[in-house]
What does this fold into?
Amino acid sequence: MNRAEFRAQLAALELSGRPAEEPFRQRMITLLDSTAACFLRLSFPAHFTGSALVVSTDGQRALLHHHRKLDRWLQFGGHCDGDEDVLHVAQREAREESGIAGLAAASAQPFDLDIHEIPANGGEPAHFHYDVRYMFIAQKNAAGTVSEESHALRWFTPKEMLALPLDDGLRRLVAKWQGWLAQQAG
It folds into this structure.
């Protein structure tokens, strides 16, 4: 997917049941229209990132990693590094950070849109990650491998995840996952 296709996908994304994400979509489209380098990590004050919620084959558990630098449990994800195909970025980051190959996208449509601030660190100023999140389904009995970016990996149920100190965006992601589970059961 190229930049123009990504913009069209964002513009057409059905958000009627997702009102918290509408302002994020508008800001993402504005960034696409105004910043040629928005897929590069050196684009400040904002750039795109891709994230992945990796769920088990039955959908009952999600794999998180305990991020080494941030010291928090998070979904997998990272910088686009020039790649305009954010779905591909999310899948690549999930594979690199979890060690699990063969992750299947639940949909080519973004599962969630989020914008969050990243504090200044080293030579980087504070900036925003325009995070496009997808859901991926792991193959049966998938076992992860801890990468250098993580302290640990762990499978969580939605209830276990909600017991963690999660930010609002990750709480919204869990709620959407629970809704997806209910649809699968119904």
